[in-house]
Specification:
- This protein has 332 residues and is an alpha/beta fold.
- It is built from twelve helices and 13 strands.
- The protein has a domain of 202 residues: Rossmann fold.
- The longest helix is centred in the N-terminal third of the chain and has 21 residues.
- It is globular and about 55 Å long.
- The protein binds nicotinamide-adenine-dinucleotide and 2'deoxy-thymidine-5'-diphospho-alpha-D-glucose (DAU).
Length: 332
């Protein structure tokens, strides 16, 4: 039985990870989360209080972080500012949380010799050409495009330096685009689903040919546990489920699954510096750690996700109007 400190555990992937840990291990969890706009109290309320404790606090606050880190066996670090569009409008919180917050955690795990797993993104590698057969691997050079991805790249490099210079026991995983329950409506898939549920139209940036490599959040969680349990200290593992899709194709699937017309969407202003394509080669995770995704059928996973948003209007309705107003102000 391990005591895990999960930062960002009230967010989309962090809360899915906490549920995964409760279902598949005997670990107990402390969530450290500052409850930004992206967090949800509901995402944690039905969990066993004997196994989950929630602490409200900022990962960049050493006085909060240090005593918490000291009494845990491992830190799994999800907390971040995560939305590219927000990072273009206002980069400062991204530098503060993603860089300074990660630095603060690294100093605490260094002081107390606590195992650290850092959650990162495929976006640190920049983007790929649409017709290029290449995919990202653990040795792809870093080339981030946005304020978000550059701060995640910076945090990855801090982790690598703390391993090499101070002997911190850390691993890193870089995952592709996640979908599933509890994702904020600012993100692509929940935005389209909840627009349609609200009687409005879907919104596609630019020409919509951009490609993302979709993975269910529960498969991301099992990949993270595999690295935490069996990964080699100092190493990086890419997590992806071989599921590249253009935004146009994902939207067409959502429209079909929700019984709407194929043209029930608007093209809106493109994202500045919009990355064209991401694609993960997860051979290392599969072969070295024996990991396999469970959600092989994307259309079935998407149908479940649509059903989840239909059934959980209380999660998204209170923030929907303000999220759409912010998009509308940017012509998106
Ligand atoms: P999210 O935006 O849904 O949740 C982030 C959580 O972090 C929120 O609960 C928020 O309150 C918390 N947080 C933010 N700043 C904090 C601070 N200073 N102190 C404490 N808590 C703070 O994010 P997500 O989509 O679940 O992403 C989680 C992690 O996974 C991030 O590190 C992200 O870079 C990474 N990631 C995300 C994806 C994806 O598709 N969403 C893919 C790969 C990697
Ligand atoms: O690749 C991993 C990354 O995936 C994570 O690191 C990020 O935290 C996460 O937000 C996600 O980044 P993206 O920018 O790829 O995700 P987003 O959901 O914002 O957009 C997905 C694609 O859909 C992207 O090409 C932009 C496009 N898009 C997005 C929105 C919100 C639209 O066409 N319309 C929209 O309304």
């Amino acid at each position: 039985m391990r005591q895990l400190l999960v930062t960002g555990g009230a967010g989309f992937i962090g809360s899915n990870f906490v549920r995964h840990v409760l279902a598949h291990t005997d670990n107990v969890v402390t969530v450290l989360d500052s409850f930004t706009y992206a967090a949800s109290e509901d995402a944690l309320t039905d969990l066993d209080p004997a196994r989950v404790t929630v602490v409200r606090g900022d990962i960049a606050d050493a006085a909060t972080v240090d005593p918490l880190v000291r009494r845990h066996d491992a830190v799994v670090h999800f907390a971040a500012e995560t939305h590219n569009d927000n990072s273009l409008a206002s980069p400062a919180p991204f530098v503060q949380t993603n860089v300074i917050g990660t630095f603060t955690l690294l100093e605490a795990v260094r002081r107390h010799d606590v195992r650290f797993h850092h959650i990162s993104t495929d976006e640190v590698f920049g983007d790929l050409e649409l017709e290029d057969p290449a995919r990202f691997t653990e040795s792809t050079p870093y080339n981030p495009s946005s304020p978000y991805s550059s701060t995640k790249a910076g945090s990855d490099l801090l982790v690598r330096a703390w391993v090499r210079s101070f002997g911190v026991r850390a691993t890193i995983s870089n995952c592709s685009n996640n979908y599933g329950p509890w994702q904020h409506v600012e993100k692509f898939i929940p935005r389209q689903i909840t627009n349609l549920l609200s009687g409005s139209r879907a919104r596609l940036y630019g020409d919509g040919r951009h490609v993302r490599d979709w993975i269910h959040a529960d498969d991301h969680s099992s990949g993270v546990l595999a690295v935490l349990d069996r990964g080699t200290i100092g190493e990086t593992y890419l997590i992806g489920a071989d599921n590249e899709r253009s935004n146009r194709d994902v939207l067409a699937m959502i429209l079909r699954l929700m019984g709407r017309d194929a043209d029930d969407y608007d093209h809106v202003t493109d994202r500045a510096g919009h990355d064209r394509r991401y694609a993960i080669d997860a051979t290392r995770l599969r072969e070295e750690l024996g990991w396999r995704p469970r959600f092989g059928d994307f259309e079935a996973g998407l149908a479940d996700t649509i059903a989840w948003y239909r059934a959980h209007e209380g999660f998204w309705r209170p923030v929907k109007e303000a999220t759409e107003a912010a998009y509308a102000a940017k012509g998106q």
